[in-house]
Amino acid sequence: MKTTFPGGIHPPYNKELTASKAIVEMPLPKRVRLLLQQHIGAPCKPLVKKGDVVTVGQKIADSDAFVSAPIIASVGGEVAAVDAEGIEIVTDPEHSRFTGQAPKYDTPEDIRQIIREAGIVGMGGAAFPTHVKLSPPEGKEVHTLIINGAECEPYLSTDHRVMVEQGEELIEGIKILLRACGAQKAIIGIEKNKPDAIENLSRLCRDEENIRVEAVPVVYPQGGERQLIKSLTGREVPVGGLPLDLGIVVQNVATAVAVHQAVNLGRPLIDRVVTVSGRGVAEPANVRVRLGTPIRDLIEFCGGMRDDAVKVVNGGPMMGKAVASLDDPVTKGTSGILVLTEAEVRIYEERTCIRCARCVDACPMRLMPNYLALYSRKSMYNDAEQIHLFNCIECGCCSFVCPARIPIVHYIQKAKHEINSKRRKK
Prior knowledge:
It contains 13 helices and 17 strands. By secondary structure, the chain is an alpha/beta fold. It has three domains: 1-28 and 103-344, Rossmann fold; 29-95, CATH 2.40.50.100; 358-425, no CATH class. The strands form four sheets. It has a six-stranded mixed β-sheet with strand order 1-14-13-17-15-16. A four-stranded antiparallel β-sheet has the order 2-8-7-4, with no helix packed on it. Strands 11-10-9-12 form a four-stranded parallel β-sheet, with helices on both faces. The longest helix has 18 residues, at 408-425.
């Protein structure tokens, strides 16, 4: 390891609730709701209508846009509803067990097409279409593939368990990714608080000349794409640039496993592992669940909510979003569902900024979050953009350390939204 990134924080990790718990498979839900946009890029358009009978693994929505990914039926059954946001399917258990056949391929382009048709996106949370990341534009060459196994978000242990339990599939997926993007070597970056994952993958990589495991410091947000690149290579992605500018592609460990299953087994993305945690759920667990399953069903599978549960979060506590309805579905990017108690959720009164600059010290992107928040509050969006508003990765470090309890990330998100809305109108 060359160095580590600037800033960062050390929040309570709370991973002990699920880190040692093996992945369990949830029974099929009675119905699923598959959203038409589970990825960055263009939303999909339905290919089915109400009353149609679909089979598990069937493509039910797609887009002609390059930056997009099709939606695959996670169960077999009858389409109960199609609307502007999603497709509902009533599950037929007898026809929901997937039996696929490995597709044939010869070239990297063939592999990328298989990955696209399988509906695979980044499963670490960003949900960027995987085939796009693996398609360097003309003039760009990829020499290094980085596999992100840092999993720095508190509570979450889905990637950890995948690395421990599905290590062989992960390595096979890495080999396919290497061929698809043309990289010569792969580095698996794992935070040091996952020694069993480090040991398992180091053993599996022992005879692989171009794949190695690197342990990185435990600091949030180590799992950020740019932060992990800095830690593993010592290089920094240029301002306004992409990892591709350095000849690097980053993929999440669960994404690599999904690539193996699609290319070697012919199995599209129909399920994923989700950490259900927090002290507000009766039995925290790592659960393999079909996409589109209602969050309510997933929580009930884990014993239901405790009496003191007050908040449900989709994702981790730092970058996740509060759930408005328990009927919301699990999506491709759902890495965790947290059921938090009053003791875990604190609501503070926002006070005046005291100019302490703790947010500046904590920012892993070397920004000035205090001014970004101030400009947003005053609707000075051009000024915010001038000091690199869109370089903010919304990791939450600034809000976490702020003694005045200013919701800095909220203000930054508001500024981004306002600027993007004006651009769309133009």
